[in-house]
Amino acid sequence: MNDDDIQQIFFVECEESLEAAEAGLDACKAGTHDDETINAIFRAVHSIKGGAGAFGHEKLQAYTHCFENLLGEIREGKIELKPHLVDLLLLALDCLRDHVEAARGHADAPDDSDLIARLEAAQTGGDEAGPPANEASQDEATEGGQSDDFADLDALLDELTGDTGPSSAASSDTPPSDDWLVHIRAHAGAMGNGGEPLLWLRELAAMGGTCEVCHTGDIPLLHDLNVNDGYLAWTFRMPGTVSRDDVAEIFDFVGDDVALAYGADADIPPAQLSHKEVVAPPPTEPVPSETSKAKPSPSPEAPSAPAEKGPERTVPAQQGSQSVRIDLAKLDALIDGVGELVIAQAMLTQRLANEDFAHIEELALLDGLVRDVQEHAMAFRAQPISSVFGRVPRLLRELAGNTGKHVKLEVLGETTELDKTVIERLSEPMTHLIRNAVDHGIEPVEERRAAGKDPEGTLTLSAEQKAGRIVINIGDDGRGLDRDKLHAKAVSNGLVADDAQLSDEEIYQLVFAPGLSTAKQVSNISGRGVGMDVVKQNVKDLGGRITIASAPGKGTTFTLALPLTLAISDGMIVQVGDQSLVIPLTHVIESLRPQEGELKGLGTARQMLNVRGQFVPVISLGEMTGALDYETDPCAGVLVMVDSEGFGSAALLVDAITDQRQFVIKSLDAHYRSVDSVAGATILGTGQVALIVDVDYLVQSSASPAPLTEAA
Amino acid sequence: MQPLTLPSICDRAAANAIYSELCDALSATPQPVDASEVRKIGQAMLQVLVAAQRTEGGIAITAVSDDFVAATKLAGLDDVLSEETAR
Known about the structure:
The structure holds 2 protein chains of 2 kinds. By secondary structure, chain A is an alpha+beta fold. Chain A has 24 helices and 24 strands. The two termini of chain A are 66 Å apart. By secondary structure, chain B is an alpha/beta fold.
C-alpha cells in the first residue's frame, strides 16, 4: 500500500468523521445531545486534523485546529452551547467539508477567513457565543488558537510557539486532587510524514495538562545520536476533568509511533532506537520542567485518583479495526465474477435440462449456493442511504440562507442499504427534488401562518426496502402541486391537448416534462423548468421509477423506487419469433391470453386490450425488435401486462413466456452502443444473448403526446 | 568562535543539517548557538541540542526567540535549553 492508498483511506475516514460530526451537531440542534455527543464531534474534527497534518494538508489542518479549539472549549464546559453557537458550528462543519474536498483536489480551498474569525470570536466569548465560563482560560486559549501562518507543512509548528492555552491557567491553580499522569514516548516514525510530537504536547497542554518531566535519559552523546530516532519521553499531569480516552484520542492517527502509559506507578515506555548500541549517557536525572520546580506537586509516585490510577499499561493509540477496506476495483472484479457464475450456472441448468436432468438435487443445491454467493457479493457493495441523507442538512442550511425558509428535517430508514453505484448516482436527483421542495413546495413563513400551519416547514425523507426495491420518499408539507396550473402550462406548451382528460398522476408527471415550470419566479435555486426532466432521466438510468403524490395545502411527496442493485435482477424471459427477450420483473403486472372480444382496433394498426374495463395499448415486441416469424395475433400469443412510469400500462405481445429467472445486466453502451427501447443485454443459459426490454421507453413511445392529443 | 545560527524552521531536515555542523564544530569550549531566529522547532532539533549540550564542550545558547522559549517550555526543556543554563 503506497502513500496515495493510505491517503485515500484518510479521505474515506474524513467522510465518516464528517457524518459523525453532522449527526452530533444535528442532535445539538435538536437539543438531544449530551456530553458524549460533544465528545464525538470533537473526536471527528480531531481525527480529520490528525490526518491532515500527516498528509500535509496545511489549510485543512489549520482550519480544523481552529474549529477544534472552539469544540474543546465547549467540551470542557468553558463555553455554553447555545443555539446560535450550534448554527455557527454547523456552518463551520460545512466549511470543513469544503476543505476536505479541496484537500482531495476536487475543489479550491474555501475562503475561511471570516469563519475562522467568528470561531475565534466565539472562543473568546467576544461575539454572540455568549460569555465564557472561565475568562482566564479563554484568554489563554484565544492566544493559543491564533493560527494565521500556515504557509508550509511545518507551519503547524507555529502553534507550538503560541501560548500553551489553558495549561497556563491550569498551572496557576492548585491542582485538584484527582490529577493523573500520562507518559508519552515518541518513536522515530512520529517525526515523519509531517508529524510532530510537540503537537501532541500542545494538545495535552490545551486540555489543561502540564509537563511534569521531560525524560532525556536516552539521549546519547552527539556523535552517537541518530537524528531520526525518537529519544524523548514526557510525563504530563492531566487534570481529573480530562479522561484517559480524551488523551488517547490525541494519538488516534499516530499508530505504533507512540507508546503511552498511564498512572503514577507506570514505567516510562522504552525507546525504540534504530542505531547500534547507545553509549550510556552520563547519569542524568530527568530534567524537571519549570512547572514542577515552581509548584511542587504530588510526585508521580503519589497515588492519583482511583478512577485514573491504574496498573502499568502501555496501550496502542489505535485499536484494531473490525473491518477491512477493499479496493473498489477488486470488489467490482468479484461482482463481475459472480455475474459470470450466475450465467454459467444458468447454462449448466439449461444443458442438464436438455439431458433431462433438470430436477436433480445437486442442481438445486448449486442454485441455492449461487444465489447465496451473489447476495453476499452484492452486500459488499451495499451502503446505508445515510450517506446521501447525511448531506441534506447542509443543503437545507444553504437553502435557508437563500430563501429565508427554515425547514425541519425528518429522516426515517436511514440505515436502509442499497448498491454503492445507486447511492452515488442518487445524490443529484435527490438534491434537485429537495431544492424544489424547499423553494416551491414549502410556503414562506407568512403564508404558512396564514394557512394555520407551523411557520417552519418540514421535509421528510424516508427509505425502505419493499418487494425487492428500495423506495425513497421525499415529502414536504408545503402548498402541494397546483394541478390546474400544471395542466394549463402543459396545454400552452403544447404538451397535452386542451381538452385532454388526464388523471392527477398523469398531470403531476408533467412536472418532469422538459421546459415546464409553474414557478412564479425563477430563482437561482429552481424554477427554470430544467432539471426535473433530468431528475427523471437519472432515476430511469438507475432502473428506477418516480411517482408523485400531492394534496393541495398539505404537501407533495416524490417516491423513487429503485433497484437494489444494478448488476443482477429478476426477469421474465419471453420468446418473440427467433428472439429471446427479457422483461424486467419489476414492470410485470400479469400475463394473459385474451379472448377476441377483449381486443379493439384503433386506427389501422393499433389495438387496445380491454382489461377489466380499462383499455391499454397492445405493443408487439416482434414488430419493435424486427424479429423473424413472430406472432401477430394477440389471441394466439401471450400478452404481458406491464406498468410504466407516468405513461400507464401496456400489454406486450410475445409468442411465449419461456422462463423467469435472475439475469446479469450487461450494458449495451459499453459493449455496443445505446439503443432506444433496449435497457441492456444479458446472456441466457443457452449462451444466447438476449436484449432487456426498456419498458418505460416502449410504453412512452406508444403513448406519446401526439397520440394523446389525437385521442383527446 | 563563530556562533551557529539555527534556521527559522527547525524541523527534522534542519536538525539533520545542524547535526553535521555541530559534530564538526564541537570542541573543548562551548559552541555558541544563536536561536534568535527560530520560529518553529520540533523534537528532532531539540534532541540534537540536548545531545550537543551534554557532549564534551557543549553548547552555549547565546540568543533565543520567544518562539524558541515557548517550545522548550512546552517540551519541559526550558531548564536545559535556555540562555541562562546553557554552558
